[in-house]
């Protein structure tokens, strides 16, 4: 759903709100499970150990629940990672990348065109299913 455009769409806000609720619930449940209250968590969160590169990478998902721009950037990055994964899959299936992905050429073979159709259809179907799920949630509320 997320793209790298400057302007954010209304659907981003809805997804962000769901993300916030999910992170909050998971965090609350985890803190209860390990027996830590919110104050101790805040202390640990602001300690020097929490500022290490590894800790920051882990905490980024929590921080994204408080910062929409960070959340959007994280989602755009995930989309890019998924696109790169799709490219790797195409390379594994064909043994090489299509010219259009290596030399800037727009010439596709029939197989490459079919694979692109499949990728587009998968993305379209995924977005369609997401929108249907969101509509169901709205009607239930």
TrEMBL record:
InterPro entries, per the entry: BART_dom, BART_sf, CFAP36
GO cellular component, one term: ciliary base
Location of the protein in the cell: Cell projection, Cilium; Cytoplasm
Record flagged with keyword Cytoplasm: yes
Entry keyword annotation includes Nucleotide-binding: no
Family note: Belongs to the CFAP36 family.
Protein name per UniProt: Cilia- and flagella-associated protein 36
Organism: Charadrius vociferus (Killdeer)
């Amino acid at each position: 759903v997320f793209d790298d455009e400057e302007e954010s769409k209304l659907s981003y806000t809805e997804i962000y709100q769901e993300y916030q609720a999910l992170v909050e619930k998971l965090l609350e449940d985890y803190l209860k499970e390990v027996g830590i209250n919110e104050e101790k968590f805040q202390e640990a969160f602001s300690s020097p150990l929490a500022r290490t590169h590894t800790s920051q990478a882990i905490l980024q998902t929590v921080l994204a629940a408080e910062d929409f721009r960070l959340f959007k950037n994280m989602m755009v990055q995930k989309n890019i990672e998924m696109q790169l994964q799709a490219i790797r899959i195409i390379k594994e299936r064909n043994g090489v990348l299509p010219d259009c992905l290596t030399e800037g050429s727009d010439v596709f073979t029939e197989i490459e065109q079919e694979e692109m159709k499949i990728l587009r259809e998968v993305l379209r179907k995924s977005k369609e299913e997401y929108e249907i799920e969101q509509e169901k949630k709205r009607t239930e509320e």
